Structure formats: C-alpha cells, structure tokens
Amino acid sequence: MSTTTLGATLAATIEDEQARTLEAARRKAAGQSEKAQRELQTVEDFFAKAKQHFIDGIVKRIPSDKLGILVGQTPQRSENTTIYSLLKLYNGRGSTFFPVIKAFEDWAASEGLEVKWVYEHDGGGVHAWYTLTVKPRVAA
C-alpha cells in the first residue's frame, strides 16, 4: 500500500507540468531575440522576488494590506515600471510570460492564498499602476 496521497501525487504532477511549461517558454525565448530572453528573465526574477516578499511578510505577520507590491508609476514614486510595461503586453495563455505568472498563481493557491492585481490610477490620466497582493483563499 502506498503512503503517497492522491493530493501529493496531483501536486507533483502539476509541479512537473509547470516546470515543463516554463522550460518550453525559456526555449521559445531562446529562439527569439536577446531582448525576449531578457524580458522573460525580468518577469521570472520579479515573481521570484514577489514570492519571497509575501513569504517574509506573512511570516512576520505584516497585515496583507501593507504587503502590496507597486507595479507602475504613481504620482509619488515609480517601481517595477519595466514589469508594468511587459505585463501590459500580457495576453493570456499565448504569452511567453504565461507559465511564469501561472506558476506564481499556483504557488499562491497551494499556500492557501489568492493573488490579487488591483488596477489604480491618479484620476487625471497621467499615472496608472497595479498593486500586486495576496489574500487568504476563501473556501468555496
């Protein structure tokens, strides 16, 4: 009798599929320009840092409304503007960035978290940005 649960088996299957999908995205970018490769690496780095940011904040018990990551340019400051520009080009499953974003969302779900992208703007048409945050996943 196996000691591996169905949930653990499914989680391993999902993780393997994510790794294959991400590797395929890297190969696709490698076949493209250096710019495409740098963009994919930039997105991967951003989500790796975001993951660590949320882990550290949650472990330190920082309230979730204080954990948001600014992506874009507000009237006061500018952060992650390259990511903002790249993600504006994001078009779902067909995007080179899809596997990276999906892996981040799947990691969050596996940790009982829900990813939230909140679009914000200054109301004057000059500045727009997103705030990336996570919230506890609500049971269905």
Explain what the structure shows.
The chain is α+β, with helices and mostly antiparallel strands and 140 residues long. It has one domain (6-136). It contains 4 helices and 4 strands, in the order ααββααββ. It has helices at residues 6-30, 34-59, 81-88, 98-110; strands spanning 69-73, 78-79, 113-121, 128-136. It has a 4-stranded antiparallel β-sheet with strand order 2-1-4-3, with helices on one face. A hairpin with a 6-residue loop joins strand 3 (113-121) and strand 4 (128-136). Helix 1 (6-30) packs antiparallel against helix 4. The longest helix has 26 residues, at 34-59.
**Oligomeric state of this protein:** single chain
Task: Compute the number of strand runs.
Answer: 4
Number of self-contained structural domains: 1
Radius of gyration: 17 Å
- Which strand order does the major sheet show? 2-1-4-3
Strand content: 15-25%
Number of helices: 4
Main beta sheet: 4 strands, antiparallel
Helicity, in percent? 40-55%
Structural class: alpha+beta
How far is the first residue's CA from the last residue's CA?
32 Å
* SSE order, one letter for each helix or strand: HHEEHHEE
Feature tags:
140 residues, alpha+beta, four-stranded antiparallel beta sheet, 4 helices, 4 strands, 51% helix, 18% strand, flat
Short account of what is shown:
Helices cover 51% and strands 18% of the residues. With 140 residues, the protein is an alpha+beta fold.
SSE arrangement:
Blueprint: H1 6-30, H2 34-59, E1 69-73, E2 78-79, H3 81-88, H4 98-110, E3 113-121, E4 128-136
Antiparallel strand pairs: 1-2, 1-4, 3-4
Helix pairs in contact: 1-2, 1-4, 2-4
